[in-house]
Each structure stands twice: as C-alpha cells, then as structure tokens.
User: Fold these one by one.
Assistant:
Number 1:
Amino acid sequence: MASTKLRSLLDESITEPLASLIIGLVKSVERSTAIIGSGAKDGEVVAGANTQKRIVVAIDSDFKKYPVNYGVIKISGPDRADDHCLYQIFHAFW
C-alpha cells in the first residue's frame, strides 16, 4: 500500500509521463515547477523542499551537495532509464 503521509517534491529532472504516473500513485506529490518555477536551480528546489517539509524526488545526483532536511529519493535504473522502468523502481520503493 502506498504511503499517504510522505510528502514529496518532484525535481524538474522527473519529466512526463513519469511525473504524471508518480502523481497518480501519490496524491501528496507536488512538482517543483509548480511551486518554485521552471528552470529553478537545485539550491532553490532544496529550499522549497525544506520549507514545505518535502522529500526531493529526482533522477539526477545533483542534490548530494545540499542539506535536504527530509531526504532525496534518487531513482534510476542500471541498464534502463525509460519512464516505465523508473516508475516501477519508484513504485517498489513507495
């Protein structure tokens, strides 16, 4: 069963249709583009996530150097990076 209490913020690296699939699974998810705006720098995404008490969800590893209070979920596949594979990884985690 999916958690309804964890609040997440999708980084801009999570593109369509993956973002819509995740939002369909977890209703408390917000997109960083909706909250912070398109093209936001990683530090701005972290600040938004920290302020809103959200976990950052990303495909890239850009958030290693930032203090993300509620954590980062980095999803990637070792051999595949297509949306279906990445969604399955996220779904299994969630």
Number 2:
Amino acid sequence: MMELEVDYKVVELEYGFDNYMKNLRNKSGQIVIKQRNLVVVDVEKNGVTKIEGKVVNDNLIINELKKFIIPNPQNEEMPITIEKEFKYSGKVDVNKNIIVLGIFDKELNYEKYREIRNKIYIAFNQVRNEFALAKLNQSTQEIIDSDKESDNEKWTEINRIFPIRYTETVKE
C-alpha cells in the first residue's frame, strides 16, 4: 500500500477584544502544515511514550524531541526548514510551521501526563537556551531578566526562530 503525505491546514487565531475581525481570513491565508512538520508524541495509558511511532524511554524524551525542534535541512525526514535573516542572529535555518502534537490516552494518570507535557516544554526551552548561548553569548534567562531594549528584541527574535507550537488531544 502506498503511503500518501497529508497536509494539515491550520488557521492561527489571535485572541483579544477585537478578535472577531482579526480572525476572519480567506482560504489563501491558511497555514499549510506538511505531515513531516507534525511531530506526534503518543502516550499510552501505561505511560509508554512514542515519538513519531518510536518508543522512547522517559529519560530520553527531551533529547528525542530536540532532534525535531533543532532545524536540520539536510535530513528529509525532519521538519521542513527555510532560511531567514535576523537582526541579532544573522542567517538562520528555521523550521517551517512545526507543530508538536501530544496524544494522551484518557486513562493515563495526571502525574504522568504532566511529566510528559513538561518535558515537551523543557525541550523547546533547552533548544532556545542553547541557541542563545551559541549565537548571542547569553542564556535565555539573562536575556529575559535584562531591562535593555536590545535584549527584549533578542527574546522576540528567539521566539520567532523557535516558536512553541504545541497542541494536545485525548484518545479513547
């Protein structure tokens, strides 16, 4: 049987007082998500975690996710990347519309759910911090704690390079 690549369409919503008018879009404004840019984290009721169908030990979840979050334009199985120019970071490869999808069994206990979900956010934050140290010679904590306008701009830039796009669902 031939496997087809599926595209997912996502409409970014902006919430606020005037959200109704801001959220109206025509079909050409939709964001197309390629299947390889959708990273699936599937957690079974017994806590077994699979990332992209591969069983991953709990202590390796963060490192496995980081492989997908860090742009890798040479590997066609990893999320699609594009090159962008930034004020402080220069030319950088960024993932194009990557989304991490957490699928949790409804019988999974809350502590395990919270642990896995936190690891997803930790993976994003570690990638951001490693990038900041390598490119900007500052940790993300130093940038966040700073009152300098340039550091505020750096933080915004890091968020644009590594946006956290995470969604989750519960399976029966």
